[in-house]
Design brief:
By secondary structure, the protein is mostly helical. The chain has twelve helices and five strands. A five-stranded mixed sheet has the order 3-2-1-4-5, sandwiched between helices. Strand 1 and strand 2 form a beta hairpin. The longest helix is centred in the middle third of the chain and has 41 residues.
Length: 371
């Protein structure tokens, strides 16, 4: 099990933040064998498709170079011009093949680990570099190199032994067909040599991913420290939550004076509702609470002449089924409408009374009752 400098075991998987920081530093999973395999496959496909035309073009270039008449070239500047033209024609001939190889060389490493760019000069350390020569990773790389040499070398020897007759027959063919045939043999040779590399890459890619994740593992303390950095200390988080709750409660209390009625239980629950017939489709709960919060709601209601209605069933049903700053639940429309209608009639007959109004037989649905 890997350990850090303090001797603690790294048993925890790397967090997303740890992986992101490692990526910024250029620490990503990479597989040289995957890059080599992709380069071989692209080179193989290119030779099989472009090989005959490429060989013919090279032969034509060679003939053109050998057919130059030295008597017509009298100026050194002409020699440079002719050589420059031959070189330009050669580059134009090789451009498709070279372009494909450059593209695969640039983008093949991105198949595992993606694109990263970092300038990390801290990793350049001679002593640490010597230590890495004798590390576990170096031994694995040495083992992979030996296995790759044996496998690819064995495949090459098998190809030479199996295709020796075909190779010797190239000498009997005319030059033009022989060159095209040689390009085809070279392409199939690369393809067969790619098969062992496919096996090696299939083993190396999972190993590189495993080794990358193993190196990023964290200790319990590192995980806790990161949580503190990203989420803050528990006491600070608790204080923030407390301040948020106080702010939300203060805002809620500011809406009590605008309420049309406060339904109580009579003392443990309190729910304040506002209903403006011109702008609201249904009464809206503007404040609700229990115990001390309920007491404060009742005090504000009396202070601002908001009627208090004592209805335990309705108060509990509104508290447990309603939501702050939302319309009352549909099943409670009838019960609340009965309370509001009674208050409207009462206001026309009597002045404001500080004592709670007791309303019995409020039609609260059985499924919303909380005893």
């Amino acid at each position: 099990m890997a350990e850090n400098q303090d001797g603690q075991e790294k048993t925890e998987e790397a967090t997303p933040r740890r992986r992101e920081e490692a990526s910024k530093k250029g620490q990503v999973a990479r597989s040289r064998e995957l890059t080599t395999l992709m380069s071989l496959l692209v080179a193989t496909g290119s030779l099989l498709i472009l090989g005959p035309n490429l060989i013919e073009g090279l032969a034509a270039q060679m003939r053109a170079g050998l057919a130059l008449d030295s008597k017509k070239i009298t100026d050194p500047g002409q020699i440079l011009e002719v050589l420059g033209q031959l070189f330009a024609d050669l580059l134009l001939l090789l451009a498709p093949f070279l372009s494909l190889m450059v593209i695969v060389a640039l983008f093949a490493p991105l198949a595992l680990g993606g694109w990263t760019f970092s300038l990390n000069f801290k990793g350049i350390h001679p002593i640490k570099g010597l230590a890495k020569l004798f590390s576990w990773n170096s031994l694995m790389e040495l083992a992979k190199a030996l296995i790759k040499f044996l496998v690819v070398g064995g495949a090459a020897i098998f190809l030479l032994w199996h295709g020796q007759a075909e190779l010797l027959y190239l000498g009997r063919e005319p030059l033009q067909p022989a060159l095209a045939h040689a390009a085809q043999i070279l392409g199939w040779t690369f393809l067969i040599l790619s098969l062992p590399m496919l096996l090696i890459a299939g083993v190396d890619v999972p190993f590189q991913i495993f080794n990358y994740l193993r190196n990023l593992r964290m200790t319990h303390q590192e995980v806790r420290d990161e949580m503190k950095d990203t989420e803050g200390k528990p006491e600070i988080k608790a204080r923030i939550r407390r301040l948020q709750q106080e702010f939300a409660q203060r805002r809620m209390m500011e809406k009590v004076p605008t309420a049309d009625v406060v339904v109580t239980n009579p003392s443990h629950y309190a729910v304040a509702m506002e209903y403006k017939q011109a702008t609201m489709a249904a009464p809206v709960i503007v404040a609700m609470g229990i115990e001390q919060t309920a007491l404060r709601i009742r005090e504000l209601a009396v202070q601002h002449r908001v009627p208090l209605v004592q209805s335990p069933l309705l108060a509990r049903a509104l508290y447990y089924n309603g939501k702050l700053d939302k319309p009352i639940p549909n099943p409670l429309y009838r019960a609340v409408a009965q309370v509001l209608a009674y208050l409207y009639r009462l206001r026309q007959e009597e002045p404001f009374n500080r004592d709670p109004i007791i309303i019995e037989d409020v039609p609260v649905p059985p499924e919303l009752r909380t005893e």
